[in-house]
Amino acid sequence: HPDCQIVRRKGKLYVICKTNPRFKARQR
């Protein structure tokens, strides 16, 4: 996903999509 950005913070994976601001997935 070109509009999605994966950010790692304190061992947590955050997926932020610009096309879908409501979509925020937290993966352990």
From TrEMBL:
InterPro entries: Ribosomal_bL36, Ribosomal_bL36_sp, Ribosomal_L36_bact
Family: Belongs to the bacterial ribosomal protein bL36 family.
Biological processes, Gene Ontology terms: translation
GO cellular component, as recorded: ribonucleoprotein complex; ribosome
Any single Pfam family the record assigns to this protein: Ribosomal_L36
Keywords from the named record: Ribonucleoprotein, Ribosomal protein
SUPFAM superfamilies, per the entry: Ribosomal protein L36
Organism superkingdom: Bacteria
Native organism taxonomy: Bacteria, Pseudomonadati, Pseudomonadota, Gammaproteobacteria, Pasteurellales
Full protein name: 50S ribosomal protein L36
GO terms for MF: structural constituent of ribosome
Signal peptide from the UniProt entry: none
